[in-house]
C-alpha cells in the first residue's frame, strides 16, 4: 500500500482527512483518505509509490495543522500470527532498505493505548532482528529514514518511514512535558509546547531572549505569562480576571484589567500571545490587526474550533489572518497535544 500515514488527536480524523485531501488535490496528486472516527490516525492512499513520495514532499510536516506525525506508508499487515510477527514484517520491507532508528508505536486512541506494552516488547524483539538483517544501523543515525511500526491490534500493523528532518521528533508525535508545581494553569503547557513544536532550536534561541517585551491577551490565571517570564521576557498581561500572586512577584509582569480586543501597546512589542476564548474569526481578525499596525513582531495565538466544519473554519481563519496582516509572514499552525478543541498559531516575519 502506498500513501501517507498521519497521527492525530482522537476524534479529529475527519479534520486531518479533509486537510490531507485538500492539500493533495492542490498538489495535483490523486488519492483518497481512509479514516474512521476515533482511530487516532488517517491514511491517505495514493496510486503508486512515486505519488506517495511526491505527496510526502508536497506536504511538509511543518505545514500540517491536524497531524501530530507524518509518515510515508510502506505496508499494511493484517491477520499476522501473534506467535511470529517478525517473519511477515521482515518480508514486507522493501529490498535494500536501511534505516537509522526504529519506533514501535500505537495510535493515541482508546483502542491503541492498551497496545503500549506489546509495542515495547515487540520493539525489543524487532530491533536486534532488524540489525541482523542489515536494515537497522548499529547506532542511531538521523541521516537515514526512521522505521515506524504502528500497531493497530495484536495481529494488524502499519509499516511506515519518517524523514527525521520532516517529522515530529517525539514518539506518537507527543512531547512529554511536565507541569511544574508553580505553573498557574495547565494552559502553560500549551505555550511551552507551541515554542517547542512551532519554532526550531535556533529560532527559539534567537527569538526568545531575556529582556524582550510581550503582551498576553486573556492572561488569567497567568500560565502563559508565567512561561514568558521563565524566558525572562517583560510581560503586559491583559485580563479582567486575577493573576496568581507569584507570577506578579517575578517583577516582570504588569497586569492590566482591560479588554484584550481593544487594548494596544504604546510601543511595538517583540511578542504578543493570546488565549482569549472567542469566535475564531474574531480572534484571527484582531491578531491580523496587531501585525498590520506593527504592534508586535511575532505572535502565538489560539483559535477555538467550532463544533462543525472545523477544517473549513481553520482554513478560513488562517487565510483571513494572512490576508489582513498586510505583510509577508511565516505562519505555522498546529493542533498541539495539549490543545483540545483548538489550534495554536505562530506568526513571525517571513524569512
Ligand atoms: C483560557 S483562559 C486563559 C488561560 C491562560 N492562557 C493561562 O495560561 O492561564 C481565557 C482567558 O481569557 C480571558 N478573556 C476572554 N475574553 C477577554 C477579553 N475580551 N479581554 C481580556 N480577557 C479576556 C478570560 O477572562 C480568561 O481568563
UniProtKB/TrEMBL annotation:
Residue ranges of domain RlmM ferredoxin-like in the record: 1-71
Localization: Cytoplasm
Enzyme Commission no: 2.1.1.186
One MF term in the entry's GO annotations: S-adenosylmethionine-dependent methyltransferase activity
Record-level GO cellular component terms: cytoplasm
InterPro entries: RlmM_FDX (IPR040739), RlmM_THUMP-like (IPR048646), RNA_MeTrfase_FtsJ_dom (IPR002877), rRNA_MeTrfase_M (IPR011224), SAM-dependent_MTases_sf (IPR029063)
Domain Ribosomal RNA methyltransferase FtsJ as annotated: residue spans: 185-278
Any one GO biological process: rRNA processing
Residues forming the catalytic site: 304 (proton acceptor)
Keyword annotations from UniProtKB, A to Z: Cytoplasm, Methyltransferase, rRNA processing, S-adenosyl-L-methionine, Transferase
Primary localization class, coarse: cytoplasm
Membrane-spanning segments: none
rRNA processing is among the record's keywords: yes
Catalyses which reaction(s): cytidine(2498) in 23S rRNA + S-adenosyl-L-methionine = 2'-O-methylcytidine(2498) in 23S rRNA + S-adenosyl-L-homocysteine + H(+)
Domain Ribosomal RNA large subunit methyltransferase M THUMP-like: from-to ranges: 84-160
Stated family: Belongs to the class I-like SAM-binding methyltransferase superfamily. RNA methyltransferase RlmE family. RlmM subfamily.
Function, as annotated: Catalyzes the 2'-O-methylation at nucleotide C2498 in 23S rRNA.
Assembly mode: Monomer.
Designated name of the protein: Ribosomal RNA large subunit methyltransferase M
Organism: Pseudoxanthomonas suwonensis (strain 11-1)
Gene name of the encoded protein: rlmM
Amino acid at each position: 500500500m502506498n500513501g501517507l500515514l498521519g497521527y492525530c488527536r482522537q476524534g479529529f480524523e475527519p479534520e486531518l482527512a479533509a486537510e490531507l485531501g485538500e492539500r493533495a488535490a492542490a498538489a495535483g496528486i490523486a488519492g483518497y483518505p481512509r479514516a474512521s472516527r476515533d482511530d487516532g490516525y488517517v491514511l491517505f492512499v495514493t496510486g503508486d509509490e512515486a505519488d506517495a513520495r511526491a505527496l510526502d514532499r508536497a506536504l511538509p510536516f511543518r505545514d500540517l495543522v491536524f497531524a501530530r506525525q507524518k509518515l510515508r506508508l510502506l505496508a499494511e499487515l493484517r491477520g499476522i500470527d501473534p506467535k511470529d510477527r517478525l517473519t511477515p514484517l521482515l518480508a514486507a520491507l522493501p529490498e535494500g532498505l536501511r534505516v537509522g532508528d526504529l519506533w514501535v508505536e500505537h495510535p493515541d486512541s482508546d483502542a491503541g493505548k492498551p497496545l503500549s506494552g506489546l509495542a515495547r516488547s515487540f520493539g525489543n524483539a524487532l530491533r536486534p532482528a532488524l540489525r541482523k538483517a542489515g536494515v537497522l544501523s548499529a547506532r542511531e543515525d538521523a541521516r537515514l529514514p526512521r522505521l515506524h511500526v504502528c500497531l493497530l491490534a495484536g495481529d494488524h500493523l502499519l509499516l511506515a518511514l519518517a524523514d527525521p528532518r520532516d517529522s515530529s521528533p517525539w514518539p506518537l508525535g507527543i512531547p512529554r512535558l511536565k507541569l511544574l508545581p508553580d505553573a498557574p494553569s495547565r494552559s502553560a503547557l500549551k505555550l511551552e509546547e507551541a515554542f517547542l513544536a512551532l519554532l526550531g532550536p535556533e529560532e527559539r534561541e534567537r527569538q526568545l531572549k531575556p529582556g524582550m517585551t510581550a503582551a498576553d491577551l486573556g492572561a488569567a490565571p497567568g500560565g502563559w505569562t508565567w512561561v514568558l517570564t521563565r524566558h525572562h521576557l517583560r510581560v503586559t498581561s491583559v485580563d479582567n480576571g486575577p493573576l496568581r500572586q507569584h507570577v506578579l512577584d517575578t517583577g516582570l509582569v504588569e497586569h492590566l484589567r482591560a479588554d484584550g480586543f481593544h487594548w494596544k501597546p504604546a510601543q511595538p512589542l517583540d511578542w504578543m500571545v493570546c488565549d482569549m476564548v472567542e469566535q475564531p474569526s474574531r480572534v484571527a481578525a484582531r491578531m491580523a490587526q496587531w501585525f498590520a499596525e506593527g504592534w508586535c513582531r511575532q505572535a502565538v495565538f489560539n483559535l477555538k474550533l467550532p463544533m462543525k466544519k472545523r477544517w473549513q473554519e481553520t482554513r478560513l481563519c488562517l487565510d483571513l489572518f494572512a490576508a489582513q496582516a498586510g505583510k509577508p509572514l511565516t505562519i505555522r499552525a498546529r493542533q498541539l497535544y495539549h490543545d483540545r478543541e483548538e489550534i495554536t498559531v505562530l506568526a513571525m516575519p517571513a524569512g
